[in-house]
């Protein structure tokens, strides 16, 4: 079915994938979403440069990384697996040796006498086989205990690093993409221990079987190896194709995943519908799906050819092995009994080699994702907010000394070097047009970012030398966009503070922002989950969420209280209440408020007007609005003239 969604200017084939919009009379055809490919380049270069030998080298590295992860989460289980692997290898060697001893006895002229002589060796073979299987089962149990622990630890490390990274990390080109690739690495960690165990078990079994095979006839091992080499190479090349497809689609999948949230969340459902955005967004999303799908399909054909070729060659080489065995027996170079043992040993070695090839390819594949994971961990690890050890007290004064800030991605400063002081007891209003640098100044003031020029001091402590967490202990921040945390109302107020048994301060904070009555009316009061998308959860209005963010900052009773447009979604009563509370709380702290509602600025002791990253004017509200040519005066007049 093809449905056309018309907004009067453009038409999109909204349901049919092939119906990429066609230009009719006049309206321009919408462009496909741009190719986003900042991160892929690095990986593709690495992939293209890597020879098979180099790629195979990744396997031991992946095994070592897995072993390290296993060791760090549960040493007991890691040792159990190792011991079981070795024991199962010993079991195989004992079993094969016992078979090689028993078979010549069984092929004598008198089978009865042969059996009587061979039974101890056969019994040893059976016990060794059973013990080997037991070891394998034990290793399996240990791996199952290890897998979820490795997965949680890998995921936790990733999430935690994100939370500890300097804000500038998010501005690094390709950061989100690399984060996504690392997430895939962390997700793959679920299977890591299992696959590593199967691979190493293959090695152990192979060594056992190869030792026995070589002792029977040196030629046998070479012939056996030949039968699995093609499959091994095929597996590695196929994994390489797979990873390249993954790598070529990661940016598209990443941006599609982000857009998916925007398209399905109730928060944007009104805007999307009422503004007839669905047609274009459907086209956009479909194009991304097609892009990913197309690249995956492109990889399917070479994948098929490689695996087919590898399997055919492997078949031919296996045939060759059987022919060689027959030739050796016919030429009298090998007895039938030894050939029989060789068959049993070659079965074991063949299975082991197959495991090595199969799981070697899997581990190689894991290795690529794991390297993404570890690279990202190292990258973000070096970007965590570890600045210095000074632990500043609640500041009496915050001083900017020629402090400026330039974002890494920008050539010009967002804030040119400025010098000014914020004092305890004062309410300071920051005013300025969009992009003037207010939020940037706030981030510097609270130590969220460090000045790229000059310095910011909390009393005598340069924030560049201070422990970031120790600084933030004294901060309460209401950012422009605060989190609608899918937690209970109680946690939404206390988040970031130690939990107390007494609810009185929580109700007090709710009361200060005019939310106490509403919270009382919620089905479970403070315990009500504030997330409509979760079963039993409740939703708040935009203004109510803002009130809760203010309550959270007030509950902290911080020495530095910073609010970035805290009342933009609030009604007049809420706004009045918040500013009244701020004034009441002001004597014990440094209060900084950013607001575009200039009537509120009156309550500030001091107004700082920023313009294009510079301080344009500073003083009391009344003085500034009455000054000729004042930007505040002009903005205020415009606000009155609305
Ligand atoms: N993460 C960032 N990376 C690069 N540039 C940024 C970043 N954040 C802000 N900027 C730029 O820095 C300048 C100052 O931005 P800032 O957010 O401080 O302005 P603002 O005064 O708070 O604006 P608004 O009133 O719109 O909130 C702007 O030019 C903005 O584009």
UniProtKB/TrEMBL annotation:
It comes from the Bacteria. Residues 1-12 have a biased composition (Basic and acidic residues). Gene3D superfamilies: ABC transporter type 1, transmembrane domain, P-loop containing nucleotide triphosphate hydrolases. It is found in: Cell membrane. CDD domains: ABCC_MRP_Like. It is a multi-pass membrane protein. One of its GO terms (cellular component) is plasma membrane. GO terms for molecular function: ABC-type oligopeptide transporter activity; ATP binding; ATP hydrolysis activity. The chain crosses the membrane at residues 78-99, 119-139, 303-319. Residues 1-41 are annotated as: Disordered. Keywords: ATP-binding, Membrane, Nucleotide-binding, Transmembrane, Transmembrane helix. Pfam families: ABC_tran. Residues 398-637 form the ABC transporter domain. PANTHER family: ATP-BINDING CASSETTE SUB-FAMILY B MEMBER 10, MITOCHONDRIAL, ATP-DEPENDENT PERMEASE MDL1, MITOCHONDRIAL. This is ABC transporter. It comes from Streptomyces albiflavescens.
């Amino acid at each position: 079915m093809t449905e056309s969604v018309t907004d009067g200017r453009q038409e999109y084939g909204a349901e049919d994938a092939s119906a990429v919009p066609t230009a009719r009379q006049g309206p321009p055809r919408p462009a496909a979403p741009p190719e986003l490919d900042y991160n892929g380049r690095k990986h593709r270069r690495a992939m293209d440069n890597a020879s098979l030998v180099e790629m195979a080298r990744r396997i031991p590295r992946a095994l070592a990384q897995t072993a390290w992860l296993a060791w760090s989460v549960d040493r007991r289980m890691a040792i159990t697996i190792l011991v079981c692997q070795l024991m199962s290898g010993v079991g195989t060697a004992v079993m094969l040796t016992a078979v090689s001893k028993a078979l010549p006895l069984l092929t004598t002229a008198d089978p009865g006498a042969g059996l009587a002589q061979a039974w101890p060796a056969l019994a040893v073979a059976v016990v060794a086989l059973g013990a080997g299987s037991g070891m394998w089962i034990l290793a399996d149990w240990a791996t199952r205990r290890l897998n979820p622990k490795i997965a949680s630890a890998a995921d936790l490390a990733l999430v935690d690093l994100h939370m500890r990274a300097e804000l500038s990390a998010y501005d690094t080109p390709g950061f989100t993409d690399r984060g996504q690739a690392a997430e895939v690495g962390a997700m793959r960690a679920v299977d890591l221990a299992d696959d590593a165990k199967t691979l190493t078990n293959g090695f152990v079994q192979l060594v056992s079987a190869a030792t026995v095979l070589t002792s029977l006839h040196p030629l046998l091992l070479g012939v056996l190896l030949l039968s699995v080499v093609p499959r091994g190479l095929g597996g590695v090349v196929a994994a390489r194709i797979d990873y390249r497809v993954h790598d070529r689609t990661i940016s598209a999948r990443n941006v599609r995943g982000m857009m998916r949230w925007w398209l399905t969340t109730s928060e944007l459902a009104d805007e999307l519908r009422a503004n007839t955005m669905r047609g274009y967004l459907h086209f956009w999303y479909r194009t991304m799906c097609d892009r990913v799908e197309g690249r995956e399909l492109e990889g399917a054909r070479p994948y098929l050819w490689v695996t087919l070729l590898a399997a055919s060659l492997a078949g031919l080489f296996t045939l060759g092995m059987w022919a060689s065995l027959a030739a050796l027996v016919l030429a009298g170079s090998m007895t039938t009994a030894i050939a029989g043992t060789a068959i049993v040993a070659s079965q074991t070695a063949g299975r082991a080699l197959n495991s090595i090839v199969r799981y070697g390819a899997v581990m190689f594949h894991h290795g690529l994702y794991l390297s993404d994971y570890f690279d990202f961990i190292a990258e973000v690890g070096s970007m965590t907010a570890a600045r210095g050890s000074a632990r500043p007290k609640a500041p009496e004064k915050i001083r900017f000394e020629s402090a400026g800030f330039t974002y890494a991605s920008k050539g010009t400063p967002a804030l040119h070097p400025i010098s000014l002081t914020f004092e305890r007891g004062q309410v300071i209003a920051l005013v300025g047009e969009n992009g003037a640098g207010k939020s940037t100044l706030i981030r510097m003031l609270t130590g969220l970012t460090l000045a790229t020029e000059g310095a910011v001091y909390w009393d005598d402590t340069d924030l560049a030398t201070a422990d970031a967490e120790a600084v933030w202990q004294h901060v309460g921040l209401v950012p422009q966009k605060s989190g609608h945390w899918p937690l209970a109302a109680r946690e939404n107020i206390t988040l970031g503070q130690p939990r107390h048994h007494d609810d009185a301060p929580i109700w007090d904070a709710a009361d200060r922002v005019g939310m106490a009555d509403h919270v009382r009316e919620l089905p479970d009061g403070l315990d009500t989950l504030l997330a409509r998308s979760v079963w039993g959860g409740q939703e708040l209005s935009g203004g109510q969420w803002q009130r809760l963010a203010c309550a959270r900052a007030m509950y902290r009773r911080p020495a530095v209280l910073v609010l970035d447009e805290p009342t933009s979604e609030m009604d007049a009563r809420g706004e009045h209440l918040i500013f009244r509370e701020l004034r009441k709380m002001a004597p014990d702290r440094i209060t900084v408020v950013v607001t575009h509602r200039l009537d509120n600025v009156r309550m500030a002791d001091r107004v700082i007007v920023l313009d294009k990253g510079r301080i344009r004017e500073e003083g009391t509200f009344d003085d500034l609005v009455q000054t000729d040519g004042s930007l505040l005066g002009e903005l205020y007049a415009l606000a009155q003239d609305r």
